[in-house]
Amino acid sequence: MHLFEHLVIFKFNDRITSEKEQELLAQLLAFKGAIPGIVDVSAGINVTEETDNIHGYSLGLRVTFEDKEALRAYGPNPIHQAFVQQLGGLLENVVVVDYPIA
């Protein structure tokens, strides 16, 4: 059984406010302890100095799951779905990467 890493990078449109972005960040950080199968959560606002590589992506998320089944169960989880609903009309693009870690 392998742990699974779930990486998400969010690019918001011009309707996002800094207050809303902070609210979304707080919701992401609250996933740990609230959604079964999550081992660790890290999330934050992008403060990279590599400004040529930002491409408008301003919020990053890393979730470590206990296994692939926990990752699969996360998608339809009501807490996750409530977060997804908050993104309506704000999201321009998103990048997702999932991979097993030994």
UniProtKB/TrEMBL annotation:
| Residue ranges constituting the Stress-response A/B barrel domain according to the UniProt record | 4-99
Q: Can you tell which superkingdom this protein's organism belongs to?
A: Bacteria
Give the Gene3D superfamilies listed for this entry. Answer: 3.30.70.100
Among the Pfam families in the record, one is Dabb
InterPro entries reported in the protein's UniProt record: Dabb, Dimeric_a/b-barrel, HS1/DABB1-like
Q: Where is the signal peptide?
A: none
Q: How does it assemble?
A: Homodimer.
The name this protein carries in UniProt is Dabb family protein
Name its species: Paenibacillus albus
